Amino acid sequence: MADESAFDKKKAHRAKHAGRKAEKKKKKHAVDQSNLSARQRNSKAFAIQSAVRAERKFRRREDVIAKKQHIPQVDKTPVESPPIVVAIVGPPRVGKTTLINNLIKSFIKTNVTSTNGPITIVTSKKRRLTLIECNNDINSMIDIAKCADLVLLLCDASFGFEMEIFEFLNICQVHGMPKIMGVLTHLDMIKNAKTLKTTKKTLKHRFWTEVYPGAKLFYLSGIVHGEYLRNEIKNLARFISVMKFRPLSWRSTHAYLLADRLEDITSQETIRKDPKVNRDVVLYGYVRGVPLMKESMVHIAGVGDMKISELSYLPDPCPLPSSEKKRHLMERERQIYAPFSGVGGIVYDKDAVYIELKGSHSHKHEDEETNEKKALLKNVVDTKETVDEQMQESGFKLFSGGAVIYPEMMKDDEYLQHNKIQTKSNSDDDSSDESSSEREEESDNDSGIDQSEKDVFDKTKLPWEDNSGSEQDDDSDDSDTINDNMKVSNENFENEGDFDTKWKEKLSEKATDAYYERQRTSKNIMKLVYGDFDIGNKTKQKQEQSDDNSDSDEEEIGGLFKKVTHTQKKKQKEKEKLDLDECSFFYSLDKPNVRDWSSENNKQYLMNCFVTGKRSADEDASELLKLDDASDGDDEDLYGDFEDLETGEKHTADESKDPQVEIGTKRKAEPTKSEILDKKLKLKAKFDAEYDNPDDHRIKGDHSYYESLKAEALKQSELNKSVFENLDNGLRIEVEGFRPGLYVRMLFKNMSSEFVTNFDSSYPILIGALNMAEQNIGFVSCKVKKHRWYKKILKTNDPLIISLGWRRFQTLPIYSKIEDDLKCRYLKYTPEHVTCNMHFYGPITPQNTGFLALQTVNNNPNEIKQLGFRIAATGSVNEINKSTQIVKKLKLVGTPLKIYKKTAFIKDMFTSTLEVAKFEGARIKTVSGIRGQIKKALNKPEGAFRATFEDKILMSDIIFCRTWFKVDVTKFYAPVVNLLLPVGEKNAWQGMKTKGQLKRERNIQNEANTDSMYTEVIREAKVFKPLTIPKTLQKGLPYRFKPKLKTTTLSGNDPKNKMKERIAVVKSPYEQKVTNVMKMLKTNYEKKKEVQKEATAERLKMHKKQQEEEEWRRIKRQKELKKKICRHLSKMGNKKKTQM
Amino acid sequence: MPAVLENDVLVYKGSNFFRQRLLLSTLSGRAVKIEEIRSGHDDPGLREYEVNLIRLLDKVTNGTRVELSETGTSVYFQPGILIGGQVTHSCCTQRGVGYYLEILLALGPFCKEPLNAVLQGVTHSDHDVSVDKVKAAALPILLKFILVDDGLELKVVRRGAPPLGGGEIVFKCPVRRHLRPLQWTKWGLVKRIRGVVYALRVSPTMANRVVESAKGVMLKFLPDVYINTDQCRGSNAGKSPGFGISLVAETNEKTFYCAEAKSAESGSGAITSPEDLGRECALQLLDEIRRGGAIDSSLQWLLALWMALGQKDVSECVVGPLSDYTISFLQHLKEFFGVMFKLEVQRTDDDEDSSDDEQVSTAHKVKMTCVGIGYVNISKRTL
């Protein structure tokens, strides 16, 4: 077999390796290399070589990713954003104004002669800028830092960075860092090329350390014909127009406004009577940050907290171009709006007409800078004179873009008619011309806005205007009548309810039904809840007017009687509600008689609320399954086949026959097949996106949590933007507030007259909205650190000017240190280089808000020179409270009065028994460290007490009681009102002075406390009593501890004392002789003895030698003898051996 | 009754909505003055339970100033800073503990320290939500706003029926810097029904009879019905006899509807049969379910409050028909916070159908949309 098969074997096919065909095949199979990624092309290079390295690499990548992640925040940038505030900041004479002029020229190709206050310009299709110059006042610097989005920090390169720049950077850091671009000017002053290079470099690096490494620093190399080089300005402009911004936490929670226009609308007459009278001031500006609520309090920096008495939006004076498809801005769309500087277009609004020819120099400013106030007043006066003309004109101007409305048309308008009647009647009633003219003015403007709203009406419907607008007016009446019905039925129920329970049941049922009915029929549920609220710009006053109007209408229709009853009923109803018991239940107080839901015919209405009931088609599992089958059955011909639809229809038809499903028919119509297909496709795409990553097969970390957070934030921001999109503008403002980007007009009543009379447009007017509870004042606890560049340390209770939130104010802070037990211990001075706690009485501000402290805002050059750096401290808010708990250590000192064993009576610590009673049980301590406790007060010396100690104390001991003494924070809070100061002195606000300052000024010197003076210390030697041991104790002691009073010497005296007691012996001559002889003899004897001793030693030596010799001989002899014996013995041994 | 503004003090008239006004005043930090409190009544001035409420607010705040007129017909209330912490309060027995508990529930997340309140008094009352209802329906709502449950707890230590009470509850609430915005437009279908029947100082058979009748109604709709009986003894049973039931319906979207009923007060002379009580409660629950919405009708105002106090983001929620109490609360919210809700009646296709048959009018759902005012807990300490 095997052979056979081997035989049968055909020649195997050999594929061609060369030739045309082979090449073709190769080409066919070869992968197109150009489209592949490096990874695919060369997979080996990317293979994991070492697991450890791969792991490290992964770790590193994850670290880098994690570092980049921020907590996702809901993006709150509005759809149509307000102009970006670009602040130009720098010390005086660095070329700020020149830069502004050049920027404006480069953006809108017009020359502006005077730049005062904010200047708004349209720079591109989607961007507007508000340029504002910051003057050299720390107040303005602070305000500017709070509102600027982008700061151009100008610096004179020939001089280097000045203190103001560092101050400004610090202010920015505290209040939320805006984007900062440095601009170096005066570079042409440096002639040497090398020094220029080094200066640029050093300045750049210094700037980087302050802002961030790599921050943009521009060089404006020089001035030609009073202007910077066009190219450089163009570059700068380009950078500005592509700048991106990060949200800052304070500004993303607070609305604010940079006022770019101010009008005083107080009547001339009252001003004439009393020039100091409080004014009604109108401020204009773009809302920034977050939506501004209508009834919120605001803080005007440099003025104080104010309540907005009227807020309305105006058409944008400097609008972005309409969204036509164009690449560039048209010349006429490059607008500029700068009321303070005297340029801009024509603006009409409620109070004044503002006319300026765009970019025309020929327009004569007779006194443009010197007499601005006059011009403002003139405006006001002008408007009053030409009301009618204005009316006509406003009709034209406002709608030049869209539908043109002529005065004749306006006359046709119903609403206007009403108003006209109103004004007429008003003018009839009130003889005074002023009020009527004012009214007319208002009505005029209102009408304008109304019409714009009417335009909107056509496009966007109010939410309740679903079916019929005509019903709207009757709604309230309807609901009232229903209410009345209810009331009537209730009354009936009270009267007759007792004897007919069935009747009663029906009635209460009716009542509940009526309730539903009320909410159902009233299309306008908002009206039901909020009553007649004012929408958008319509003011309350006007609302009242219209109310009166409608009433009067009713009067005409229904007669006097009806009207009276209506209002009376309303009042009656309110009165009844006034003192009811509060109850949050749906049916408050009265128990309802609910429908019997368990009965069969009622049950069907409820069944679908349960899982056991029929579900809507897109949720019902069986339906979905059917559709699923239907669509799965023919996946190939997704588009072609319609048969399944038929079957689908069949299914529904089947079900509709089911008696049960009758309930289900009420649900939503079944989704068509295409809908379901769409849904499925979407799901599939989602799945693919999640699981298929065709080009990247690397292992990835799990960022799903972060991603989900991000998605959530995104979803929320989309919802925020979309939810009110289709709402009527007026209602939208009611619900959402004045959203950022709107140009608003806010009226402040009772503004102090100095604000207007001392107005200086070079100071920014920052209006910041205050959130809930921020208008209140309390105790603020914060952590603070003295600035390391500030030369002095700060003293507790020295007045300090703090810039916190929108505000700048002076207050008296107390510094403290938080101990380990969270107790705040009073500090007299701020520590250096460490943060400490600070408490002050001031406005309530959310936690973590940054603040900075200054000791003075006075721009006196001498003072600044002395201080050097003005920012004294920076910090952030920790906690708010209505009371403080700062304590100071207090040592009460007493002395013993009488001492028993361990008990002692202490005096002088307290002054009364009551005080002692309060301190019963307190710990006390002597100086020597013996601890004790206060027991009870004594009768006799007032304030003395009994105390026990752990040991007996001495009369000389001093006893301490350590206690804590509460320090109160002084309730002093004074806002810095620099905007109210006269024009030249705005930078010289002087608040409360420090004690030191006052003393220096008045040359007061303190008397030194004599107790604190240094005196010579005289210390007497202490004499101790000898130690005596009682005899009884001595007896018991072991011998070695017994005092050995008797000395062991024979004399019985101390050997030391013995020497002292000895008497000098003086010898007689005889005795001397004798002793001499004796001495000689003694010496002689001693000599003899010595010689003898030597001789003996010699002898001994000789003898020893002799002995040694003798010994030697003896040993020798013995050796020889031994030799002999041994020889003899060996001879004998040999003999015996041979015998054997 | 709209407020009159006098130098930034809101002036109201009448004793109604006293609790709402004080609550909103405490949260907003705005002073409020309430005049003509029962001035026309035989018994003018504040009731005991209202004074008790002021006491409670004083306990959880620091720096609150209250000025009462001599007759008690006018109150000036200047709120302080919310402190929270350990609070023990014996509530007035004229109202249930729920009257006070709802306030603490609203204030709880904004305190300086986590609230740990012990409330003593009547735990089940006719005019106020019972503690069971708060536990079952209100806490899940709060949880939606604070998201993480670290110590949100309500413990019923012992129950107490009116008139003498004797009940005690412990309420713990964590603090938050701010609340999250909420989007809640689906409420799903009822999937289970749970309930508690309590019997205090009465025969245990009462409880069983209530359970039987309530279950009898509910089982017609849903098989998943469990009702526990809580037979209290000795000191746990409070000081007065009584029995009652509270039923909770849970949907598959975590919406809880709750209804409750209790026996007549022991001194009043009226007799309540347990069967009627169970049936009444079940019918009320069905009524509540029919009203629908993502939330129980008596807690609408709490939802509105928390929505309004959120971040400056859009919150939306669909609720059943607005109760009168909620309507007035919305008015008050506007006056205190300046926040206005966008309210839309949601129309479904069935409306047109149902308009044909007059017998049953369907309950209209209201979609509430608002932008939070960006309220932050200013009393919390940061270290």
UniProtKB/TrEMBL annotation, chain A:
Basic residues compositional bias, start-end? 10-29, 563-572
Compartments where found: Nucleus, Nucleolus
**PROSITE patterns membership:** G_BMS1
Task: List every stretch annotated Disordered.
Answer: 1-44, 420-504, 536-575, 627-670, 1094-1113
Which domain of life does the UniProt lineage start with? Eukaryota
Tell me the GO BP annotations in alphabetical order: endonucleolytic cleavage of tricistronic rRNA transcript (SSU-rRNA, 5.8S rRNA, LSU-rRNA); maturation of SSU-rRNA from tricistronic rRNA transcript (SSU-rRNA, 5.8S rRNA, LSU-rRNA)
Q: One MF term in GO for this entry?
A: GTPase activity
Domain Bms1-type G, chain residue ranges per copy: 82-246
SUPFAM superfamilies of this UniProt entry?
Answer: P-loop containing nucleoside triphosphate hydrolases
User: Which Pfam families has this protein been placed in?
Assistant: AARP2CN (PF08142), MMR_HSR1 (PF01926), RIBIOP_C (PF04950)
UniProt keyword annotations, A-Z:
Nucleus, Ribosome biogenesis
Basic and acidic residues bias locations: 451-464, 536-545, 647-670
Q: Which InterPro entries match?
A: AARP2CN, Bms1/Tsr1, Bms1_N, BMS1_TSR1_C, G_Bms1/Tsr1_dom, GTP-bd, P-loop_NTPase
Acidic residues composition bias: which ranges?
428-447, 471-481, 546-557, 630-646
Give the coiled coil ranges: none
GO cellular component, alphabetical, reads: 90S preribosome; nucleoplasm; small-subunit processome
Its name, as the record gives it, is: Ribosome biogenesis protein BMS1 homolog
Q: Which organism is it from?
A: Galleria mellonella
> What is the taxonomic lineage of the source species?
Eukaryota, Metazoa, Ecdysozoa, Arthropoda, Hexapoda
From TrEMBL, chain B:
Query: Where, per UniProt, does this protein localize?
Result: Nucleus, Nucleolus
The answer on whether this UniProt entry bears the keyword Nucleotide-binding reads no
UniProt cross-references to PROSITE patterns, sorted A to Z: RTC (PS01287)
Q: Which InterPro entries match?
A: RNA3'-term_phos_cycl_insert, RNA3'_phos_cyclase_dom, RNA3'_phos_cyclase_dom_sf, RNA3'_term_phos_cyc, RNA3'_term_phos_cyc_type_2, RNA3'_term_phos_cycl-like_CS, RNA3'P_cycl/enolpyr_Trfase_a/b, RPTC_insert
Q: Provide the RNA 3'-terminal phosphate cyclase domain boundaries.
A: 12-342
Segment forming the signal sequence:
none
**According to its UniProt record, which protein family does this protein belong to?**
Belongs to the RNA 3'-terminal cyclase family. Type 2 subfamily.
The UniProt record lists the RNA 3'-terminal phosphate cyclase insert domain at: 186-290
Protein name stated in the entry: Probable RNA 3'-terminal phosphate cyclase-like protein
Q: Which UniProt keywords apply?
A: Nucleus, Ribosome biogenesis
| Lineage, broadest ranks | Eukaryota, Metazoa, Ecdysozoa, Arthropoda, Hexapoda
